[in-house]
Amino acid sequence: MPKKSEVKIIFESIKDMPPLAVSLYTMDYNKTGSWRNVRPIIDYDKCTYCTICWKFCPEPSIDLEKIEVDGKEKFKPIINYKYCKGCGICWTECPVDAIYTEEESE
Amino acid sequence: MRKVIIGNHALSYGAMLSRAQVIAAYPITPQTEVIELLSEMCANGELDAKFIKVESEHSAMTACVGASATGVRTFTATSAQGLALMHEVLHWAVGARTPVVMGNINRAMAPPWTIWTEQTDSLSQRDTGWMQIYCQNNQEVLDSVIQAYKVAEQVKLPAMVILAAFVLSHTSETVEMPEQEKVDEFLPPYELEYKIDPDDPHAFGGLTGPDGYFELRYIIQKAIEDAIPKWEEVGEEFGKLFGRSYGLVETYKIEDAKELIISSATVASTARSAIDYLREKGKKVGLLRIRVFRPFPAEKVKSLLSAIDKAIVIDRNISFGASGIFYQEVKAACYNEKNKPPIFGVITGLGGRDVGKKDIIDIYEYVMKQDKVESDIIWKGVRV
Amino acid sequence: MKLSIPEEEIMGHGHLACQGCGAALAMRYALKAFGRNTVMTFPACCWSVIDGPFPHSAVNVPLFHTCFEAAASTASGIKAGFDAQGKDVNVVAWAGDGGTYDIGIQALSGAAERNDDIIYVCYDNEAYMNTGVQRSGSTPYLSWTTTTPVKHPKQRPKKDIVSIMAAHRIPYLATASVAFPEDMITKFKKAKDIKGTRFLLVFSPCPPGWRANPENTIKLAKLAVLTRVFPLIEVENGRVWKLTKKVRTVKPVSEYLKLQGRFRHLSEDDVAVIQENTNKDWEILMDKVGEKD
Fold it and tell me: Which of B21, C171, C195, C224 has the most CB atoms less than 10 A away?
């Protein structure tokens, strides 16, 4: 199975390399959150846990956490800012305007 | 067991005995009998292979490369225009390290439309990284397919077994059929370190920048260099099992030779009878037939040429703007040597024009009158 | 509460797709439908880059990169390789519109005519996006691209790839949209369980290539269906045509066009022609579906 790595792998020598261009690692090293100009923030007071934001995220950079609300199992969406590119689909598609935005400072 | 078969069927039997598992091919004259017989073999159960009757040579080679990457033995055959159409995928097979084996029937390139023999089609593919074996008779065609799988699978590079259009492809010769059990013993099952497998997912051939591509090319060059001794070892091992040994090159009457005629494929076998004639006349001439052209047997060529007075390379091919292609390679191999003879390059037999014993004798006698090499091309038989 | 699409994520994050990429969403849904016993082959397309550089990959299923015109034939070869080993693996050719409508159509037609047991997915973003927005056979009428500048936008309609593939009498073909993932995943799962050549066309907006705001990807994909520009259908054996998404309130094409910079140059008359063409195409489709609306 592909391994995780925090950095892009560059082989120091052919001794470390597979004999052909074959992948051995995931893309987790590539923290695409740095592409983001605008940060989406979920207002959990408004969120109805409909999961539409999760459904339409192209990264995917919205994780789901199973929670209990009024005795019912719900999926709470949690934005993974390491990878969120800030495309804006989630706040555009949110049916209850529960996602607001802030400009990224750097 | 002996069988009288055409060269094209020698390819089919070679693939069958090697237990090719996936075949993908598209018809082209003069290759069609190869795939017709393979279709029969698959239909009647003699060969347990999946045969994809693709819509082009490009698809034939991409299907072979894809199948090979899953870890199965693959085969295809083509000629001239078909090989040219595959060009992009020939590079792909090498970069993907898929040991596809292919038969190529040497046919001259169009236009004008022509179907007769010439080597420019396969020699145009010399820089792709494919190994190339030029055969001189049908027995060698069959035996070379089996050896090609063995070498290709060891070095993870594809190989092309090459024969002349009509001169071999459609000419019947007696061929000793290797026994299946012995071929199985000779050719172990195909194993791949990295293969397409849902239980061990990898991406193959992903975008590679200057930080890695260079090394991957170095690795391929080392792999094809490794194939040089492998062709000798495998040819010798084949000889032990089947009584017919092969090497990178074949020599004939070279022990006391002062001159060498260097050629390939069926022109080389014609040259053998010319040498017999010249030897009777007291001439000290021998033959060097280059069987494996890629990887190029440079060390063999250098050592054989170090002790002679004149070399004559006969090419049934041309690199326009330069010269005959075997001539270039032989000359380049010897350039840095201290002891090297003058090397004369002859181009003859393009587009299937007959190259007979007398033509080769004429070439020899012409070169014997020359003190030095005046031009990179001596034209033989062209009406100017 | 039940999720409307499978929870498991096979596609990983960190991939190189642009913000709001329709093709990335298409892959995410496709892998949810197909599962891990899947092998993909990509010709040259956006996904050749999106997946990431050697030795990394984002898809987490085996992926074989192949040349531009060879997605279908490579898939046929891979499938034959597994068949020869007695392994049952779902083999998927995954191509953009250039690799499908244009340079790859020969290999696709060949595989479909042979009815090779592969799934061919075209994620359609209506131009050569990976090379910087050049027109393809899929680019719609009057669209701007870098090779069809606004002074001379594309003069020919989008190629009707659905009818071309239906004419091959393949067992199953369907159109899908990233705005309707439940419908898409249903179709992809259905395709997975059918033998023979299956063709799936996924409408995948490209924000940079369409000169659209990335946040509008889903909105645009939805409007393409609601305006009947991209109907959601299934065709079985090339003969039985079904509409899988009926639109109750049809919207004018102008609503779809106005959100995209690639149509900014259109006059009112141009928009009227596009509306008329859309209506005509819909009538032809309804004849095939055998429905009146």
Answer: B21
